[in-house]
Amino acid sequence: MRVKFRARLRAAAALSFVLAAVTAASWGAAAAPAGATVSNYCNNQTLTAAQWCEGAIRTMYAVEGWGDQHSVCVFFQASIEFGTRCSGGPGEHVYSGFEVPVKAKPGIDNCACSPNTVHGRAYQP
After folding, report:
1. Which of 10, 34, 68, 124 is most exposed, with minimal Cβ within 10 Å?
2. Got the DSSP string for 22-68?
3. pLDDT in tens for each of the 125 residues of the chain?
4. Which domains, ranges and CATH numbers included, belong to the chain?
């Protein structure tokens, strides 16, 4: 009985963290400040079906990405993935940002069942 309670408590805590991250992502969809610098991650890499790629950890305001052949999703990767946003098709840029910088790895996910050449940018303070 005690084990089930602990498991439920851990699940509730994890869900709370995910909901907080999603709320923060929805609030922070603002553009990066004009003084931001841009660094590439997973740029010009061909990912296989449903493969994803992440860059080095950094402090950043936003991630951007696009795929040449298919749509992609961009995200921030810390202890969990958050701030995920997806493009609508090939060549369409997708952007996910925050009003305050976060320390995480930028990531991009090939959303297709076939290879896709992806491009990612991170916006840093």
Report:
1. 34
2. HHHHHHT-PPPPTT-EEEEEEEEEEE-TT-EEE---EEEEEEEEEES
3. 444 444 444 444 444 444 444 444 444 444 545 677 999 999 999 999 999 999 999 999 999 999 999 999 999 999 889 999 999 999 999 999 988 999 999 999 999 999 999 999 999 99
4. 2-124 (2.60.120)
